[in-house]
Structures are given as C-alpha cells and as structure tokens.
Automatic annotation (TrEMBL), chains A, B:
This is Hydroxymethylglutaryl-CoA lyase. One of its GO terms (molecular function) is hydroxymethylglutaryl-CoA lyase activity. Keywords: Lyase, Metal-binding. It comes from Pseudonocardia kunmingensis. Pfam families: HMGL-like.
C-alpha cells in the first residue's frame, strides 16, 4: 500500500502557481523554547532548499537580548551554502539590523510592523507613527543598496489587547509601507482569529487603499484551525504568495495563546489537490520536518506530517 | 482581557444558517480505545444538547462484538433525557440493529454504506450490490414505521486500498440510497485526503446524478488538515448540513492513519466569523469537550479547544 495522495481536481478561479514563502527557520525557530545549534539551522535550510522551497526566510538580525534563539544570524549566513535560484531573505528590525544584514551580503530583507497601536507599543515600544519613522531609513538605505524589502504587517485580524482591528486600519498601514518602498506586504493573522469573510474584507480594504493584490502575501496562524480555509479564500481573491512554516514550527510568544503558523505540508497537500504548482517535494519536506522535530524533541503539529508518519 | 473572538464578516454566497450534525457520541466514542461508562455518555449528550446542538447522533446498534464501545446503546437511550427540539438519530447497521432501535423508540436512524467495493468488503463483508440488498429492507421497514433514514456514504474522496475514487462512483451510490428512501446523505471523506476542487467535483456529480444538494451533508476528517477548507467549499456549493465531532473525537479505525473528525468547535469558530447561524454556545461546547477529554484522559485535538484552554 502506497501512501495516501490527494486526487488532483483544479478549481476555477484559482492560480496555476503559488509561491510558498517558508518562514520556519526564522519565525518558527524564533518561537521555540530551545536554542537550536547553528549547524542544525544550516542543515535545516539546506534540506528545505533541496525539498524545492523557493524562498527561505533564513534568520533575523534582531538584538540577541530579545531573541537569543537567533543570536547566530551572521554565523548562520556565513555557513549557508546557497542553492541556485533560492531566495534567502532575512528580518531586520531596525538600522542596526540592516547594517549587520548588509555586512552579511544579503539581497532581500524584511521589516516587521504592526497594524495596531497597542502591539507597536508592546513589540517595538513605539507608536504607529514612530514605527514608520523607524522603518523609513531602513527601507531607504536597503533600496539604495539594491535590496528588496518585504513588509510584515502583524495583528491584521485582531489584537489580543485591542480586540477587533478595522480592515481600513490594516489597509492604511499597508499603504504606508508600500509607499515607503516595500515590494511585498505579508498580512499576518498573528493571533489566528480570522475567518474567510474577514480575509476578503482585509484584502478588499488594501486594494481599495491602492495596494495592488499582486504585492500582498498572507501569513496565517492556525491557532483556531482557520489557516487553510483563510488561505483558500486569499487565493480566490488573487493572492499568489503564502507564508507557511515547515512542520508548523513557530508562533508568536507576545500574543497570548498563539500557536504555530500554517504548516507548509498542510498547504502543499491542498495545493497538490487543486493542481496548483509550487515546486515542493512533499515527501522530502515531511522528512525534513520529522528530522527537525527530532532535533527539538517534540512532535510536529502538522496534520500531514503526523498522518504520513503514523502520528509520531 | 476577554477571550479571543472572531470578527464577524459575512461572505456573499454563504447561507444564513447551517445545521451542525454532531457525531461525537457515536462516531467519536466508537473510535476511542477506552470504553466510556454509560452514565458518562448520557451526561455528554445532555451537555451537548444544553450547548445548543440541534442533532446528536447518540449511539449505534451495531453488534457489540464489532464495537464493544457502544454495547450499551439500549441502556444509554433508556437513560437519555431528551431535550425539547433536539433530534437523536442512531446508527443501525442492519435489520437486527433496526429491531433494537425500534424497541428503543427512536424516530431517526442512519445506515452506513461504502462508496467502494473494497471498503464494502472490508467493513461489511459484502459487495456493493449486496450492501444495497442488505440496506433495502432496513430502509423500507424504518420508513414504514415512520422513521427518517440518513445514509452515510464512506470513502467518497479516496480509499486506502483502491486509492482514487471516481466522483461518478460516489454519485451512483448516493443516488441508489436516495432512491431507496434516505432523506439525507452524508458524504464522508473517511481518510481525509479530499481538497476543495475535489469537493466541488463530488457534489457536482451527485447533483448531476439527480440527488438534490439540499439532501446532501458533508462529513470531513481532518487527517490532512483539509476539513475546514473543504467545509467552506461545500457551503459555497449549497450544502447546509455539516457533520462534526465535539472536541474532534473519533476517526475510523479501519482506515490506516485516519484521525479525528472535523472538530465542532473549529467549525463553530468559522461559522461565527462568517455570521452563519448554528445555535451553539461555543464556550459551553468547549467546556463539554474539556470535560470529555478528562474522562478519556487525553487532550482534545481541536485547535479551538486547545487555544481557549491554554493548550491543555
């Protein structure tokens, strides 16, 4: 008996191809209690590239005091054997982070903003206006150096302190980041409360504010089990880049009850069933997630990983 | 800080109301290793009714040799204090099961068929034609006694032995069960491999074969994480009854690697976000699932239950 496979049945209105933006090595490992050795991180990235993932967010140049898990960012990039055609963006929280990223020779950076005043205050100790003032020189200098800049917008679908977040508020933040020069925005459901109608509302608000849908990516957390239904909704609305985390690694430690990102394997299963190209070898990816779960000493939360490996 | 809530944003093309057909007490407990005491089962059903669930599949009159977990079916129905307006169907595998259900005074029964020859052989030790021959007198006698009869069709989206299952094959089985007199068919993704385009294809095939969509229900397993995206797809296609299991209890022990049903809580979260009525009090339901998880001595696999109770 071979393993289960989805039957491939395309659905009208969906794209031929989706770009999976893999965040496991950064967003995933950043939120694990264990500090993973740098050689294991390098091996993780090598395996993810070999499994066919086209974009691997490799690490973050955040200050080690805040995220000790990624204190080895420069060392990791130095060890990394870059695969042909694979993009390796890194997160930079501020100008100091950008300096370190430029020293490491990266070609693609990401900044991490908030859609809400409260989370900007909690995560960055800044107001929203101060957040933009902090990001402006980062983006400007990165663009001048020939880098591409992705903008994360977190708390787009709710905030644990503010509760509901108006789609127009998200759109306003998104527009400012695009005007600043971000080539792509990743709209994050950091606490995982969003549902499909809400996804359409946020995407519609962004487009109405002048942000083209081709510049939007989605970043769903599966805290309330909604990530894949929301992803399907975003694909129907024209989004072509989806963030996911191998094996479902990660989450957001600042958001109470937030659990992992959408598992890349669960996304790949749906895309395979829909006949949407992505370039990933699912078995190689599952093997990588099982290996990483062993390094972390805990099982993967991905449903696909658990099903294909006997619930281990 | 109050608990997280989805923001309610309706989506065009979705219904105002969905009927949740709760299968936890039957499909869920049937597939648990532990045999739950009859008084715990009665309490479970009382709590589910109090939480607002409108349909509770209570038990099965299958032979105790095959499903010892539900050997107490008659005793359970005898203890059950039926809530006003709540429907309590029971599964009957054959005429002997129907006899026992009639003795217990039920008004709604369900039969459990297969979409594939191989699963009919494995589960019922019959060919598909023999399956229909066995069900015909069950349905006829139930209808004569004034009962309603639901028909389950299992393995609609794949079979662990046959692999892919043609949507036309599913539609043919569905049509025969409707012609026999079933008022509703529950199309089951028993191994959980289905994806959204496949859901549309199966529903389209059934409608093309003459089965009205208003008579169709869907029963998704979350083995590969696809259950909620598939449910959303079925709702867009006109389905108005969705099977789910409180806390994600259950699965199918005959299907290798099959894990639990769609968790009722995860479904309720999506319906709340979409502004679709269902009548269920989510907090009361979560409390019930946590209580049942304690009885079973293992955590609930529902994402919503875990998020709202701190990952317990």
């Amino acid at each position: 008996m071979t393993r289960d496979l989805p039957m491939t049945v395309p659905s009208p209105g969906l794209p031929d191809h989706v770009t999976i933006y893999e965040v496991g090595a950064r967003d995933g490992l950043q939120n694990e209690a264990a500090v993973v050795p740098v050689e294991v991180k390098a091996e993780f990235l090598h395996r993810l590239a070999a499994a066919g993932l086209p974009v691997l967010e490799a690490t973050s140049f955040v200050h080690p005091k805040w995220v000790p898990q990624l204190a080895d960012a420069a060392d990791l990039l130095n060890r990394l054997v870059r695969a042909e055609g694979v993009d390796y963006p890194v997160l930079v929280p501020n100008e100091r982070g950008l300096d370190r990223a430029l020293e490491a020779g990266v070609s693609h950076v990401a900044i991490f903003g908030s859609a809400t005043e409260t989370f900007a205050k909690r995560n960055l100790n800044r107001t929203l206006d101060e957040q933009f003032a902090m990001f402006a020189p980062v983006v400007q200098r990165a663009l001048s150096a020939g880098l591409r800049v992705r903008g994360y917008v977190s708390m787009c679908f709710g905030d644990p302190w503010e509760g509901a977040v108006a789609p127009e508020q998200v759109a306003s933040v998104a527009r400012r980041l695009v005007e600043m020069g971000c080539h792509q925005l990743s709209l994050g459901d950091t606490i995982g409360t969003g549902t499909p109608g809400h996804v359409d509302a946020v995407l519609d608000a962004c487009v109405a504010a002048g942000v083209p849908v081709r510049q939007l990516a989605v970043h769903f957390h599966d805290t309330y089990g909604q990530a894949l239904a929301n992803t399907l909704t975003a694909l129907r609305r024209g989004v072509r880049t989806v963030d996911a985390s191998a094996g479902g690694l990660g989450g957001c430690p600042y958001a109470e009850s937030a659990t992992g990102n959408l598992a890349t394997e669960d996304l790949v299963w749906m895309l395979d069933g829909l006949g949407i190209g992505h370039g990933v070898d699912l078995d190689a990816l599952v093997g990588t997630s099982v290996w990483m779960a062993e390094q972390l000493g805990r099982p993967s939360p991905s449903r696909v990983v658990r099903a294909l490996t006997g619930g281990a």
